[in-house]
Protein 1
Amino acid sequence: MTCEACNTIPPVVAAGYEPKGKWDEVAGFKTYIAGDESTATKAIVTVYDIFGPSNQTLQGADLLAAGLGALVLVPDLLKGEYAQYPWFVNASPENTALKNAFMGKVMAFGPYVELLALVVKGAKAKFAGVTRWGGLGLCWGGKVTVLLSGPSAVYDASGQVHPGALASADAEKITIPHIVLASNGEDPAVVKEYKAILEGEGNPGVVETYPTMHHGWMGTRANLSDEMNLKEYERGYNQVAAYFGKRL
């Protein structure tokens, strides 16, 4: 039996999904927790995109928890202050000002990297039965995650899907197994550089582009009523589950 078969996720719910996990506190952060705390020996900390803990992201957490028999934690790093769609689609001086102020804050990644490190430390203390830890970031969360995947990595393996602020300099510092699933919205040249660094003989990394998918297809911007997005959302989470199943 292949790893992919071992870690096949449950069927994706296209509409009306009701999250199966619970909300609790981890290191002072409201955190969504999927999976069985009493039996899990591996866990993944997922960092959402700038739109926060959407149903599409929480379903992804539930899918990984079920597919891996793991805990999946989604900490509310932005503490309820998320990007709003009107800022991006309805041009106005007010929306532009709000968007620029928000983006200026969240794109200063350092403080969020420090907060995530605190969350992971707190999670390791809270869930003592977990011996292997993974990190997964969506869009903005991918950058926060990869910056904790270097010489002082807090994870045993990590990954990014439709990553934000992708930079090959980050890839050069990665010291743990790492997977990148890119959309057609990332710079192909940087994705290619990532692939050259992480893949190849003796390297455990995986870098793959989903060429028909927009930036955000596995997170808040996933349109699961679209047949192709639904298919590739499912394929993406299966691929992530298989990778963590092998590396955690």
Protein 2
Amino acid sequence: MMLAELAMEAGLPKGVLNIVHGTHDVVNNICDGEAIKAVSFVGSNTAGMHIYSRASANGKRVQCNMGAKNHAIILPDADREATLNALIAAGFGAAGQRCMALSTAVFVGGSEAWEDELVKRASSLVVNSGAANDSDLGPVISRQEEIFGPVLLLMKAESLDDAIQIVNRNKYGNGASIFTTSGVSARKFQTDIEAGQVGINVPIPVPLPFFSFTGSKASFAGDLNFYGKAGVQFFTQIKTITQQWKESSPQRVSLSMPTSQK
């Protein structure tokens, strides 16, 4: 509401931005309304698939960015200090309540060497009001039905291949990262992993807006992704115009397709 008020103060014409409050009936009216040609949604899988099915059945263009279960693979050769900081920040930053938060760390070769330090750093985070200057974590705003909170699961894998299989068995496909100093391992990971957004020593691989937010698998429903060229195309109705301007009429009727255009 504050953003809408600021938009109005900035001079945005009435009707360009509308905020409608409500639940099921409002959502269904948006999916059914003839004046609405496209629906873009971000939220849970249950709501997203309902919106995708109902809106697309009404002939609308639909994109739904839905749930995620983002993994990071940590190889033994990873930079220890940088990786620990990245895991803590990506797992607990914003109280873990962001769609691209890191929820699972898969340690290749065992996690024993990392666990104590991870627990120590997590335990030192200050939980307080989000407005407090010394606060690291604010309160969560709802139940953790999708582990949508400050939770970091630690798993183990014997090899990089095993770790990649663990990640790929996950039905979601928003993002996945690897921490390593090996270019060979990084290249194998980015080729074999089944996620739309891939990070190499980057814990939350969200691209800049001029690149697409390329969620995949159960994390996305639709044909055109968010952001970038695909995002522009989603809100664009393409029109092809063919014209012909003849200076004089033909002497006889021609049944061939027009070959000259002006």
Protein 3
Amino acid sequence: MQDTLKNLQLSYVDLYLIHWPTAFKAGENPFPMNDQGGFIPGNTNITETWQAMEQLVEKGFAKAIGISNFNIPQIQRILDLPNKVPISNIQVELQPYLPQDELVNFCKSKGMTVTAYSPLGSPGNPFASGDEPKLLEDPVVLKLAAKYKVSPPLICIRYQIEREIVVIPKSVTPSRIKENFKALDIKLSAEDMQELSQLGSRGFRFIPFPPLKSHPEYPF
């Protein structure tokens, strides 16, 4: 953590997350892989990692801590600890094809804020096979974009905002980053939200992260 703060030229971070609930075999390579292209698991339990994260808050290196890509049973294992520091935030893939209502409602009921990554369907996903559906070309998304005279990404961003979810669309293009803020000016109707929610029946995950599938703590 001290190396991270040094690299960032900060004395603390506002929020620090466990990125995946999957520990890897310790060694010089932080991401050891086997001959089959999967990560080699380590012996560290997610509860041990969480307790170490709590110490970062106690030492003032982080103001808050959270998790990412955890499922409900994994979250419950942390909640069952005699926690000194609450889980402040969870970051997971959320987009109209994967609303994850049960997970979202569970986390909110436990006082966590929820952050949506890949809210646009991850069009630049390096693990994409090419057969994935194109969320930004979905007829419902295109219809609503035309209705409000905005781009399809803004509809997907606003969908999460209406669900009281933090949205972090990825972009390195200044003009697109600026345009994303226009989602704050849109107000989707209850009928619009219902149409978008119905897309969730696909249950399609754009970021299944194949190299982790053989890991015993694979969360999906």
